[in-house]
Amino acid sequence: MRTTRILLTGLATAALALSACGGDDGGDTDSTDEAQAAAGDDTSGDDGEDAQAPEPAEIRLWLNGGDTPDTMRDWLIEAFEEQNPGSTLVIEEQQWEGLVDRLTTSLGSASETPDVVEIGNTQAPTFTTVGAFSDLTDMLGDLGGDDLLQGFVDAGSVDGQTYAVPLYAGSKYVFYRKDLFAESGLEVPATMEEFVDAAVTLKQDNDDMQNFSGFWFPGQDWRNGVTFLWDSGGELAVQEGDEWHGALSTPESIEGLERAQQLFTEASGAPKDGNEADPQVPFCAGEVGMLSAPGWVRWSIDNEEIGCPEMMENVGVFAMPGSDGEPAPVLLGGSNIAISANSQNQELARSLVELILSDDFQAQYAENGLTPAKMSLADGLGDDEFATASIEAVTNAKLTPAAANWAVVEGSRVLEDLFVAIANGGDVEQLAADADASITEQLD
Amino acid sequence: MTTRHPDSSVLDTGGTRPAAATRHTDDATWTTQRPALRARKTAAGRRRRMWNALAVVLALIWAFPVYWMVNSSFLPFNRIRNPDPTFIPLGGTLSAYERVFDSDFLASLRTSLMVTLITVAAALLFAFLAALALSRFRFRGRRTFVLAVLVIQMIPAEGLFISQFKLLEGWQLLNSVVGLSLLYIAAVVPFTIWMLRGFVAGVPRDLEEAALVDGCSRAQAFFRITFPLLAPGLVASGVYAFLQAWNEFTLALVIMTRPENMTLPLWLRTFTDANRASDWAGIMAGSALIAIPVIVFFLFVQNRMTSGLVSGAVKG
Amino acid sequence: MTPPVTVHGGRREDPGPSTAARRRTASRRKGRRSGRRTMPYVLLVPALAVLLAALGYPLFRQAVMSFQEYGLAQQFGQPPEWVGVDNYTRLLSDSYLWTVIARSIAFCLLVAATTMVIGTALAVLMTVVSRGVRLALQISLLLAWAMPHLASLTVWQWLFDAQYGIVNWLLTSIGLDGFAGHSWLIEPLSFFIVAGVVVVWMSVPFVAFAVYAGLMQVPVELEEAAAIDGASARARFRLITVPLVKPVLLIVGLLQIIWDLKVFTQIFVLQDAGGVTRETNLIGTYIYRLGLGEGQFGLAAAASWFVLLITVGLSLYYVRVLIRDDEELTR
Asked: What are the structural domains of chain C?
């Protein structure tokens, strides 16, 4: 029911936002002048007198999807309005789909820009490199400094300046069927090798089921596939001097890709060209021994309308193990938060970002199963099996290459194509070399 | 009737709308009523049944995905995507509809209705006037205009939203029904002009002239003679304009950024979540509700579509 | 509104002596004449104004941007740099582009033709079935047309899903076991057949409605007279119906070509569901994946003009016929 609940609360918040911004037109017109000054209208020779307390205003915060639950939003609004008397905070829920288009237009408009926005960590470089966000470098220490998830700070930084700071993270871990493990006499794997063996064994032991997967691995799922590449020491792309090159055809990468191919052909019954959406569907159909997915899949399985709550007692989780016995490097997902450079209320926006990165607020992300932006708060995730797997997975998680054009590589779906071809039993070395050529060209 | 003077059939009706029996589609009874063709009655009847059966089959094929949407809206997701599909939502649930009505559906419906009705009304009016100019007058620049309208439709509009946003920003029409409608009208007006132009040209001038001679005022001549003849074209272009505005997503996405200004397609997206499981039953329920006003609109206007040209009023 | 009655003599091209004479003598008539001369422009004003307002500036900017390095940075205030025809050469220098164009044209023509044939056939069918059946068919088509794309594309994906799809389920249950887990999207040909089915399904209602409206203007008397004269149904259709609905057929056919050439959403969504992106890109998705999704607007603008060029090339015949047809209509 969680998805439903989140959905409903999200919509309730939207309604709340609606009533909040109804009667605040005066504030808007007031701040237009400031906006013109901020937009660099030097000719007007503005006096810089508003150095004291910022003028009260309506602050618009864009949060995406349902990751930040209703209670957290309420808390944030209350805390912000208490700290900044006279100002109001309006949270407008955005959808991930179409977000880039909306940000592209709205952030460029002095009158319509939201003040603070959440943005996916892989989308962050697209906007930080073009001057869409305000420089937050001077606040970094106050916001948490070294305690902040460094990969996300990197994703939000250009040339040593930081424009977007971490909001929360989440990473994938392995869901497995305890009953099937017991039937096949398997233990939770401690190394990558054991993991692959377990996946193959499960597939063999349950081969009477048509689409059974020892490890559910649809062909397009490069976001899981990259784990095997990283585990064997490979990279997606590397930087030499100023230039980025695809690195899929290095010997280390090839080793990882071949391991992925073994899993595709010997352990997975998922469609060879499928994507990783709705993993609970094959899981609930009993066709999956193990799958690697973000933590929220737990709630999909435990949902009466979406999943199969009766199966929960057989669900176990662990962080995917690496070849060295440590957690394997998995792809880190999550969000950054930034202030629109066009915002007319920079001061208020900064105080909002401080509040969002405060321990009080971030701890609530941990309570809701997401990894908070500060390492020191990860304990808040709890100590059950899920929390342990989640924390372990994050410790060794990695991000996609920090190249400015990386989004183009993802957009062109080179990686999806590569893994589909690998899943179909193609020649790994040849495929990797071709993909490298495309990636190098796109990162250029 | 074929021997009558072209104008008389109209004047005979005394200015009321043309008699239904002479129209093409009203049960197409003309083949069976005429003595010369009566012999074919049974053969025609058999053929008719065959066509009816074919039409029903095709209707079912086209409606199947729609049925599947409605089916899915009543089922929990784990029964939609399941190795054993559920074809009839027995033991289904209305919970998706509850979620839909608990959300901003009605507010979005209002915004969408306003945008769409403005678009349809303005597009039809503007296009009708332009069609009148194009089919009843020869003037300098006419050909340029015709070509321009044609080419405008060919320009890929996908990248235009950036500049259109700037445009509306300058006019302070962001987040406004008027601003969005303006863009929609411009998007549908070229096709509407072309569509109506053919219909206006198809209305015999003699007919209106005759009506004028007969003492009708110009307005009367227009509403009694011209308008009914244009109706099929107006309905077809109206439905087109309606659906374009009703289902448009990208422009609405960038123009209507405030939650209180959501149109229905934007509202529908609130049920998706890339980071979590999307509420597919809710999306299907919402989609089913979004389709209803379209059908209502059509049922209101569909009679107009079948009132074709008056029998006997043949131009050439 | 000027009554059409007065139009006949008013051709600007041949002001015969008698016209000139009338103009000199009858001042009241002269007033009407000049009114008639400005009337068409007055009638065009609203449409023209709305087109200029909503599209004029954006199209102008699009033209300018195609010669600029214009990306997100420029969107956020950096001055754009003039790059001449760089965007165009960058676009055209990619050999893969030509594969995609050939693929797109083939897909476009096949799908547009199929849509036109089925749509027109359905429109004709509407004229020969009984009233209730016609309404049922119309509503069913309208439902398909009105279904939000988010829902319709999702449903089509579900139908053709390899493991949980109805299509495979039905095929397997009638004994074709080879279709268990069959992926419809992994082979490019099969991918485009599925994409074609979806696109045709979505576009046929529009064609059917427009053509049906056109058919409603065909005078019954004419067909009837021809029937009595012994013309076969086919001959009647070819000789009477087709010429009279030709304007509608032409413009609707042109639109199909335009839309199917730049088809985007259906391909984009299906690529996400399965298949190999590089083997299934059409112009729309290819250009998007070049980086337009990430805001390379200069390149996007160049691509737009380029696609326009292809469209004009593809539809040149259509446009010629349309224009000639248009001249005839008003003669």
From this structure: 95-330 (1.10.3720.10)
